[in-house]
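Worked problem 6 (solution included).
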Amino acid sequence: MTKTKMTAAEKNAAIWAWAFITPTMLGLIVLNFYPIFNTVWQSLCKTGDFGRGNTFVGLANYATVLQQAETWQSLWNTIKYALIEVPFGVVIALVLAVFLNKKLPGTSAYRTIFFLPMVCAPAAVAMVWRWLYNQQFGLLNNIFHVKVGWINDPKIAWISIGIIGVWSIIGYNMVLFISGLQEIPHDYYEAADIDGATGIRQFFYITIPLLSPTTFFIVQTRLIGALTVFDLMFMVMDKTNQALKQVQSVVYLFYQYAFTNGNRGYGATLVMVLLAFILILTFIMQKAEKKLVFYN
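Solution. The predicted structure is:
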């Protein structure tokens, strides 16, 4: 079978196509693919003296990481944070989205207000919450006339950090829910009104089932985001904080080993362990999607 020659117009179109996709491909290779393979390689090596060079050690780093109590403690800390941020962030955002999806006075202003935490600089957010949580002159302690160490007490510090995570992500989840609500045909609600269904029954029997694809997407993406949390803990918690070990995430522990201690091999191994955990959770969620998600 003979190949037909490209016309001049087709060649010109192909050149422009490659010109447009080449920057994206280079960006993926340099910023995504290379770091992935480099991290896998680093996890199999021991960093040389003074941070120079790598010595291949096979699975020795994995054996050490899995035997360390701080690894499992940081993983448990990360899970606890996710258990606060994901469920509460989803539920509160869903309720707000239902109300703000209605044509009420000031709806646009409220949407903007709730979305503001997403566009605020993380450093500014951390400074404000550190002031709110301050044990000596913090706003919360002054309002309630107490002396609670919100981020210094190991028993409640992880809850305090989780509250910041919920506050900062509600706006993003809310916008996604509003877009999902607008895709639901209004005919269903009109038929429910004719049948005499109350607003609550409509919410549980129409809104939630038809919104399940959006909900599943938000839960899955936010679960991954919560399990990879770092900046929030890094900026709110001081290194001298006695509650740090009860709060630090796996990524925070990775930062300590890879950038503070200069042990890049050990740090890369922590990342690979976290990646394996996320992949397992993602696989389970993908299997559950067929039973839990209703596609209209």
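Discussion: Strands lie at 45-47, 54-56.
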